[in-house]
Amino acid sequence: MSDLVVVSNRGPATLRIGESGELVVRHAAGGLAPSLLHALERLEGRDRLWIASTMSEGDREAARRGLPAELVGGCALRLVDVPGEVRDAAYRVIANGSLWFLTHGLFDRTRRPAFDRHWHRAWEGYREFNRRFASEIAERANEGGVVMVNDYHLFLVGAFLAEQRPDLKTVHFTHTPFPGPDELSVLPQAVLTELLGGLAAHGAAGFHTPRWADGYLAGAARVLEGAPLAFAAPLGIDVQALAAVAESPECRAAEERLLDRLAGRQLIFRADRIELSKNLLRGFLAFEELLETEPRWRGRVVFVARAYPSRQDLPEYLAYRNEVERLVERINERFGSGENLPIELEIDDDFPASLAALRRYDVLLVNPVRDGMNLVAKEGPAVNRSDGVVALSREAGAFGELAGPALALDPFDVSGTAAVLARALEMPSDERARRAKELHDRAPGLPPARWLEQVLAEARPASPLPPRAQG
Ligand code: G6P
Fold first, then answer.
1. 42 CA from centroid of ligand 1 (Å)
2. How far apart, in whole angstroms, are the C-alpha atoms of residue 221 and residue 93?
3. For position 471, what pLDDT does the model report?
């Protein structure tokens, strides 16, 4: 039984059964999970448990054997293995195929969404997925314990948990953006009411910025009686942990290789998942426009993009990846010669190589169409050694903290983005240094350990809100 239960769909580690039947734990390398885990490790005096979904075959085998795995000192991992069709409905159709699009404003609305009978059946799967997580928590949390639920895969957990374990103190945290009532209204009213009611049934709901929290409150006001509790807690980064990787031999070697390849050219860099919300296409189109309209930059600047695949089981993501690759080929054919290509697109997940480039960029391009926070925008200035400029989308959650020293860009404005890139490339060195220092000072923000403390302090017993009477 645990005093503190953290819950997320994807856990911070995947499991493998070793040769002698032992459990081998493989921790995630980058992103939120390692820093959250580190923060959890430092919370003393409580029994901690992380509950996540099985994602790999090893996970499923471990779950079948009922094995809890030790993640870090005093914190265990327990995997929930829901039947394949329930997982598919909840994760692929609802979470990735609908809620991700909804929260990031990605629906085109001409064709999508279309909530047909298959979708409504998938919604039942999503409900079932949430119910199973709630049962797992109910079984494992100590009397009066604290439960932190993460993200859009698990919006309904609070509602099921409130029925079974009203003694628990709960808090939900959404790491994506959260839209306001106009965008939310694409959901059928009954579904929207269930979704917002589920979220409101947690003791409190947290978001990375006040804008996302306000969207949720405004949406809830339309369909629920009474106002739920919401708060904003912007996640920062663990600079020390990052510096340790940045100083590693692996990272140093990657940096040497990068410097060789640059051969004196300026470096524009970006690091993202290949993800519809990250706006890779318009970023490359802006670079193309720069090379086209200001020929003096040709051969003097290289755009390195580290992009790692994600959600390749969704047709939209595969198509997007193909489109990105084709666009890069076209621009390289147009402006490249021999080995000297204007864009280097590296499709893999190599955290040390990304950090090496973060240390060296002259310009960091972060142009999402919408993003809950975006930690790359903070990691860059924390480790950069070149007085690099950050070109940052007004739609990234991090914009609220970094606006001013970062150059603002409008993510849909290709010409505007090209102009921001040009301005960054030719910025005088004293202005670069001043902005870089200010960004470096602001970058840590609320480090993960303090962020976690703040979020957990918001946990309280749930008091679910009834739906508003609707016509
Ligand atoms: C991004 C988002 C998280 C989300 C995760 C899921 O990192 O910022 O909020 O939980 O994607 O990714 P997955 O690969 O598990 O679908």
1. 24
2. 27
3. 65
